[in-house]
């Protein structure tokens, strides 16, 4: 009972969202095909953005609201590529290449600022996002077409100064990554199960040889749960048919998986160990010979670059973006999704990211329809989505503060008894 109670208390945000999602799905009364399609799209559209938050948490920087600047660098690159009229996959690859040095530069500047405000990184990142937003809007609303020449009337407003409010991608560029390879959701589930079994077999032999049984146990449990879910879905004719009509963008999915593997790889390297040491105790890290400030800057640079990649993937999936506002809610939604998955400002991993995206964006999908069915007003569902986005961040921070205060009190009592 104590283990169950601890599991519930440590994952209260995730449990609450699971209950909310279940209730909203029932009330919304949408077809399984619609739900599957929306969840698949949002999973791969937002996957890299949420994964970009993990390393800063590991390095003790908390929830990086500074990824807004990574999104700005991505949008800047997309504007440049659109102006150069490079379309399709080459255009998106060029956008990734152009956004990288911009994101690295911004990441270094953010990291240096965070080193000046240790312990206040989250609020600093939030305020920095507001400041950078003003600079970004000044450049593209005032300077472009005025001081910065832009001889393309299709991209500027009628006066010739300032970009259009909405930047549309060409037909070739829109969804270019998503269109490369597509398979049905039921095929993707089956291939995923085969891959998971292969990983389990490999870990089984490696684990027996190295006597590392914990990893084997986790992978085996995951394969068992995955197989049970797959069998349940396959056994339901309605769900099985719905999955056959939903396409999975394989290339985009592979990009998200590569970023997840890259994050896991970094965590298991010497650099990842430095991140953990700095995140746990900076004084001990300094005593161990770790350059704390440099390590923190590297963490922020990686996060900012990944965020820029994630925003490009998101933009190509949608096909257009609001020139002046598309980046504003990137950090809020990504952080909320990560927290919903069970992460905190001190702990986050890849599984938290994927679980959070599934739960958070499932609720995002069905909330307006649930509001319409309950109150005959879809706007209530929209308000609920915004309320949940900010509310889950506030709740997670409150729970972390309460837990930290409880630990300090327990430590003080132990010191007094000693």
Question: Care to describe what's here?
Answer:
The protein is mainly alpha-helical and 418 residues long. The protein has one domain (2-417). Helix content is 77%, strand content 3%. It is built from 18 helices and four strands. Helix 2 packs parallel to helix 17 and helix 5 packs across helix 15. It is globular and about 70 Å long. The model has no long low-confidence stretch (mean pLDDT 87).
Summarize the SSE layout with pairings:
Blueprint: H1 2-10, H2 12-28, H3 32-51, H4 54-58, H5 67-84, H6 88-116, H7 121-143, E1 166-168, H8 176-180, E2 182-184, H9 185-210, H10 213-234, H11 237-244, E3 247-249, H12 250-267, H13 270-280, H14 282-287, H15 292-318, E4 320-322, H16 330-340, H17 350-375, H18 378-417
Antiparallel strand pairs: 1-4, 2-3
Helix pairs in contact: 2-17, 3-11, 3-12, 3-15, 3-16, 3-17, 5-6, 5-7, 5-15, 6-7, 6-15, 9-10, 13-15, 16-17, 16-18, 17-18
Helix content bin: over 70%
**Quick one: how many beta strands?**
4
The structural domain count equals: 1
In order across it, which strands form the biggest sheet? 1-4
State the order of secondary-structure elements, H for helix, E for strand. Answer: HHHHHHHEHEHHHEHHHHEHHH
Main structural class: mainly alpha
Backbone shape:
globular
Arithmetic mean of pLDDT:
87
Poorly predicted regions = none
**Over all CA atoms, what is the radius of gyration?**
23 Å
Q: DSSP helix count?
A: 18
What composes the largest sheet?
2 strands, antiparallel
Residues in β-strands, percent:
under 5%
Straight-line N-to-C gap:
30 Å
